[in-house]
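Lab notes, practical 5.
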Amino acid sequence: MSGRNVGLTATSPSSSTDNSDSGSHHNCDRSCNAAAAAALASFSLTEEASKLCISIDLVAAARRHLSFLRSVAGSPILHQPSAILYSIRRYEEIWMPMMADLSSESSSVPMLLPPLDVEWVWLCHCLDSEHYREYCVSKFGAVLDRPAILDKENEEYAADRCRDIWNDRHPSEPFDFDFDEDNSSVVITSDACSSRGIFASVAKHSELCSFFSDPFVPEIVYLVSARRRYINFLLLMKKSAVRNFRMVPAADIRLMWHTHQSFPGRYVTDMEGMGDLGRRVVGFKDQVTTEEAERTTRAWEVEFDEPYERAGVAMDPPSSPGRLFFNWDALNSDVNRHYKGLQPRFLMEVTVFLKGKWEEKECHKTFLRMRTVRSHKELKLDKSISESSSAEKWRKTWHLYCEFSARGIVIEVRKHGNGFLRNSKLIKKIYFYWNDLLRSTTLTLIRELEFELRALSSVTPPVQAPYLLKTVPDCVTDDSGAMMSDVILKMKRYRPQEGRWLSRTVLDHAGRECFVIRTRVGRGFWRRGADNPVAVKWDERIIEVREGQWSYVASSVGYAPEKVVGVATPAREDSNDRKIVWSLSTGDVFTICWEDGLSFQLQNESSDHSVVLQEGRKLQYQVSENNPEEEEQYITIVRSNPENPDGKATALLNWKLQAIEFLPDEDAVFVLLLNMAILRTISQIRREDIGGLLVRRRVREISPGIRDWGSVSLPANSSNDHHLLLPHFKPWYCNNANEVLASAEANDWRGQNHRYSPAVGKDELYRSSIIS
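Output from the prediction step:
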């Protein structure tokens, strides 16, 4: 599994539903690998399917195919016509003749791996199966196959061997892709007609890299399911009933089809007797009609009695709405693993389909309710049976995204009551546990409800999702990190506590403490009738991030964690130039200007990344409806580098609510320092406490499991329209984030006056340090 895998543990309806999942990710690799191995071992074919001989390991080949697509992403050979022509010349004049010569000298396919640009042209050409076959036969007398290189060790060997042969035969032509658009003169001396066909194939598949970029696609359990569906798709293609229209392959089937096509020699042999699939199957980026999509779906359901659509599987464009939720790249690393208190989130897509009829006379009084097994007890998605089921076809009833910690979903059959409160009565309930679904070779399960009504649930493999963090006010601490309290004084034999720091606790998506942020505001002691703390100078008002949880010694009194992992120091305050500069311990210099509105600049001489902070929700965080007042609360961090020149959004900050979402490849401490520095600076500029920095007590949060932040989200196109009005079922940054992140206290704690202990210090001390 890319990134970290999710632990699979046995579950049952009577299992404990404790809300703590703090240790679930420690045995992720072992558990999920076992599930993947079980899926591979249990993969079996029907007698009819076994007659279809696929001569390549499609699961291993698909993983290699996806890895190659990721390596090509961002290359100029995808979109620059001159670069494509340059690569086609190398492919036609050097590579293919060389492969033909070597193939004639051996009975097996030469184990050679060409340069990246040539391999991309070769792949695109192979995906146009008929043109590739005709091209090879006309020029070389036989179809040239690609070698089955499915592991890293053989890949390195094949690349090194190919480099040696290439340099020996063509010393004047560099092996590696070395294209300079300003100094290139591309001359294609081979047949212009064939070159145009190859160019069309490359141009057509330019978006192929992004089409399969969902992070769950490389998972073995997903690929095992895709292989099974691809074989069923080929079986369906043999039926005479589907020969009078083009079939539309779903995304997982297209992945396997393209993988199969990428080995043209084997593909021709395996598909013997099947006819030209290129004419009977909708190609990539080909126009899809509604009739073709509906007839494909209907033919599949009639043949296999299961829905064609499922979680993580969309129809080809334009039928597919694109990446609705998993809008981040597949990740192989998490830079935050060394923060022991920061636990990752794992997310999965879930769909539920219903088929059948309900024969009860009082059907109008009966309805279905869906909940999660654990987490988000406020989630109750109700559907009437008559609207959500059909006797003739499978109907998608629910579509949502759940954290793996939710453990599964429950579907309840209920009947409306007749009382004043109209309480409903539970008739029956069925469970779909993630563990059971992930162990299925199809990633689906069917459960019987009542009478002839059946429910089918499907999931995607869980993948590591962006982190969700928010900071909440906490008690004032001294220079040592101890809370200002009589308990601490007594423990220190009544020695006065020195220094004053405003403290905020960082909570993750499940409400767990993972960091403590402290901002220095005062120095000195407090003695009864004697000294009082005084505000420190501007350049001493540092922000520090400490890793870990509070160490409580009595009730809610305790010490901040000892390990300091990040510091932001205000380097300069220049009211005349209207800017403030912060020096971060990460090596970044962060400048905030307010000459003509707010602007942000980040510099780091030791980094090869270009980082831009853009005001508002940008790129994947952009929302269709917004207002300027709400938009100004958000800052999007966009990073770009040579591999990703267009940049990608790695984090979204709401500095007013102190809420953050960031990708695993973005550093948590860096984002926390930026977030607090922005709030401190804007509070200083506007001379008001915007984000509740003056609150010096812990605000009570909603209990975990009641309404967990991010545990359940509904897509924008969900059929549960009446539930989309509830903001906590949407991504937190959509609509009103205040409601999603609201505390358990009914009143607005930011606007209230509270009585604080004299040891904490007078209110003027904090006002002078924060908003003056």
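Observations recorded by the TA: The chain is about 30% helix and 20% strand. Confidence is low (pLDDT under 50) at residues 1-20, 318-324, 719-725.
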